[in-house]
Amino acid sequence: MHRPLFTAALAVAAVLLTGCASGDDWSEGPHPRPSAVGELSAGFLGPDTSPAPESTVTPSPGSWSRVHPSDGIRVVLLTAGHDRPTKTLVTAVQEWAQDEDVDLRTVTATDAGDLVPAITRAMDMHPDLVVSAGNDLIDPLAAVTPNHLAQQFLVVGAELAEPTQNVTAVDWSGASFRGEGLGMSSTYDASSFTAARCAAAVRAGTAAVLARHTGIVLWLEDF
Predict the structure, then answer these.
(1) CB 201 within 8 A of CB 170
(2) Total-model pTM
């Protein structure tokens, strides 16, 4: 093969292998910490502007809509399961990333034995945020996240029973799975995972993380 053609072929192969928007090597640093572009409305936190860790906050609808991620944010979508709620959450994350020009990569757990390894693979990519979708990941996340406090996690459609400061969750009535054998604050309802509610959960959750309100549970109502 002629050298120009060989070089071009290598370039095309590299693009296909990366599978991400920017093609950047995330392991290269330092990378500026992402920040919020815009501000949360007053109704997001209510009267308590500094919620305690593990507390539940009920933001008013749309109070997160003015917050967007700064340029260059790197997000890993960590997912497990093929049920309709999980698929709806995955679509919501993908659409948010496209709308906000986020550099998004996906790690999918292949089976029960791959749940913890999948979390490790996600962290090894050095993202600014790991967004988790799928109830099967909750127990593994509860075991892993306390040992990696520098990594921010966002759990959508479920929550950890005892989250550390690096784990933020978004729930609503019908979606509050906390792990096997643990009670839920509402009865699980797969039909509650509508496209609109999942989209709101992703935007509210990422807005909270970007605004540095982490380690809390956001409870969405009126969707």
Answers:
(1) yes
(2) 0.86
